[in-house]
């Protein structure tokens, strides 16, 4: 399996960012890491190995990007700066990672995928830019980071503003009314996967219900147990990516 390491200084983020790319052709997948994890963790957890056959066959090409969650959602900065840093990260993906992929890969399709907080990143960016992404897979994810849950705090300490609203799928999705945007969402291949005992189950149900109300087709799968560990993600990626 072809493996390539890339690193460059991001003018958007003002720091170096790293990435691993697996495969040389196929539909490109931007794979977001879990909470405060890094670009190499999915390889270490053998999640990439679970997709090895698809990668070698040229069905998919996987771009494992790094995260800056410790500088945004999990930083000690005031809440407005936390969400501002996240928005910078999204701009890095859109303005640096996507053009890099377009140079490497000529496929029209583009997939966003991730597990846990990476699933949030994938769904949030894909739903905000449905003209860019053709498929999204969110696994074990939380789609409202402002909602306190057992063992998971409100990541903005009660603060709420427009930037937060437009970066929480469970907030902005129900309010989508633009016909063009809705059609783009309806054309996207959307998959949400969550464990029956996962704390984020109701979060996922809420998003699924919102999509139903907007007549946006999607797949919503509930696995047995919590299903919030690499051993489950190894099985999920075989099925959904």
Automatic annotation (TrEMBL):
Gene3D superfamilies in alphabetical order: alpha/beta hydrolase
The record ties this protein, via Pfam families, to:
Esterase (PF00756)
The record ties this protein, via PANTHER family, to:
ENTEROCHELIN ESTERASE-RELATED, IRON(III) ENTEROBACTIN ESTERASE
The protein in question is named Esterase/lipase superfamily enzyme
């Amino acid at each position: 399996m072809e493996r390539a390491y890339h690193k460059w200084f991001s003018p958007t983020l003002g720091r170096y960012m790293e990435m691993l790319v697996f495969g040389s052709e196929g539909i490109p997948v931007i794979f977001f890491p879990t909470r405060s994890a890094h670009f190499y963790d999915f390889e270490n957890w053998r999640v990439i190995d679970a997709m090895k056959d698809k990668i070698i066959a040229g069905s998919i090409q996987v771009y494992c990007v790094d995260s800056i969650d410790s500088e945004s959602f999990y930083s000690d900065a005031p809440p407005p700066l936390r969400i501002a840093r996240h928005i910078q990260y999204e701009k890095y993906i859109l303005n640096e990672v996507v053009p890099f992929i377009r140079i490497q890969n000529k496929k029209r399709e583009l997939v966003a995928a991730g597990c846990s907080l990476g699933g949030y990143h994938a769904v949030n960016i894909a739903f905000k830019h449905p003209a860019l992404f053709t498929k999204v897979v969110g696994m074990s994810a939380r789609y409202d980071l402002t909602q306190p849950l057992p063992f998971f705090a409100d990541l903005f300490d009660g603060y709420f503003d427009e930037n937060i609203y437009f970066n929480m799928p469970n907030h902005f999705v129900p309010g989508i009314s633009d016909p063009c945007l809705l059609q783009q969402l309806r054309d996207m291949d959307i998959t949400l996967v969550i464990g029956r005992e996962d704390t984020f189950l109701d979060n996922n149900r809420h998003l699924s219900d919102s999509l139903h109300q907007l007549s946006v087709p999607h797949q919503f799968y509930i696995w047995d147990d919590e299903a919030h560990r690499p051993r489950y993600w190894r099985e999920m990626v075989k099925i959904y990516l």
